[in-house]
Amino acid sequence: MAEIAAQPGVSDQIPRKWMDQARIDAGGDQGGALTTAERDELRRLREVAEARTPRSRETAFP
C-alpha cells in the first residue's frame, strides 16, 4: 500500500478507502455503507430511471 500511496498523483487516502471498501465487501459492517455490488446496482438503476425520464421535462424549464 505504501508503494501505491507514494506514486505521483495518488492521495494517501486512496489506499485507505480501498481497504475500507474491501472490508465492507467482505461483510464487515461500516455503519450501513454499501458494498461494491450494491453501488453498482444503484448506479445501474439510476441510469435506467434517467433513461426513462422524458426529455421534455429537461427542456421545459431553461
Briefly summarize what is shown.
This protein has 62 residues and is mainly α.
Explain how this protein is built:
It contains 4 helices and no strands. The chain has 62 residues and is mainly α. The termini are far apart. This is Transposase.
Helix proportion: 55-70%
For the residues shown, what is the average pLDDT? 82
Based on DSSP secondary structure assignment, what is the total number of beta strands?
A: 0
Radius of gyration: 18 Å
Protein name: Transposase
Give the arrangement of secondary structure elements.
Layout: H1 2-5, H2 13-25, H3 36-52, H4 55-60
Which keywords apply here?
4 helices; 0% strand; flat; 62 residues; single chain; mainly alpha
